[in-house]
Amino acid sequence: MTYNCEIREEEGKFVAQFPDITNVLTFGDSVEDALVMASDALDGVLSVCVEKGYPIAEPKFTGGYPVEVSPKIAFAIELRKARADRPQKEIAQAAGMTYQQYQRLENPRKTNPTLETLWRLQKVFKRPFLVL
Predict the structure, then answer these.
(1) Spatial distance between the Cα atoms of 126 and 111, rounded to a whole number of angstroms
(2) What is the pLDDT of residues 17-49, one digit of tens each?
(3) Mind listing the pLDDT tens digit for each residue in 41-53?
(4) Are strands 21-28 and 13-18 parallel, antiparallel or unpaired?
(5) 69: Cβ contacts below 8 Å, ≥ 6 apart
(6) Residues 90-116: what's their mean pLDDT?
(7) Residue-wise over 26-64: b if at least 16 C-beta within 10 A, else e?
(8) What is the sign, positive or negative, of the torsion defined by CA atoms of 24, 29, 30, 32?
(9) Alpha helix ranges (H) inside the chain
(10) What is the DSSP letter of 25?
(11) Which one in 4, 24, 88, 106 has a CA-CA gap of 20 to 30 Å to 35?
(12) pTM of structure
């Protein structure tokens, strides 16, 4: 999952901003520094949004600089999107796992699915979560 950011120079600093996620704004001393800061800020905001259940905008802006989302955060977002309005307990039962195991999968700080878990989720949701 990739979001693109715009970087502009203001008063000797390089300001990075994501048009798709307006509450992410950071800066650096160079373009490269601003991109590192943008990556950290993007991951932080998306992680909180996932944990709190806030809506997450789809990446649509294609200009500027691409910034890759952490794989754990991207997985949690994709899993939540696939689940939609279905209860976590229902998905856990269908995947043959406990409710607590499934909850951890949607938590970007705790998720670390095994290949077996990915296989089970792909069967439940009828879509791939990992393409090699």
Answers:
(1) 20
(2) 999 998 899 999 999 999 999 999 999 999 999
(3) 999 999 999 988 8
(4) antiparallel
(5) 1, 2, 3, 42, 43, 46, 77
(6) 94
(7) bbbeeeeebbebbbebbbebbbebbeeeeebeebeeeeb
(8) negative
(9) 31-52, 71-83, 88-95, 99-105, 115-125
(10) E
(11) 106
(12) 0.87
Categorize the per-residue pLDDT at 132 as very low, low, confident or very high, splitting at 50, 70 and 90.
Answer: very low
**Contact yes or no for 52/76 (Cβ under 8 A):** no
Residue 113 · residue 122 · CB < 8 Å: no
List the structure tokens of 128.
């791939």
Cβ(16)–Cβ(28) under 8 Å?
yes
Residue 114's contacts (CB-CB under 8 Å, 6 or more residues apart) are none
Question: What are the residues whose beta carbons fall under 8 Å from the beta carbon of 82, sequence distance 6 or more?
Answer: 121, 125, 127, 129
CA distances from 54 to 21, 28, 112, 118, 120 (A): 12, 28, 22, 24, 26
* pLDDT tens digit sequence for 53-88: 899 999 999 999 999 999 999 999 999 999 999 999
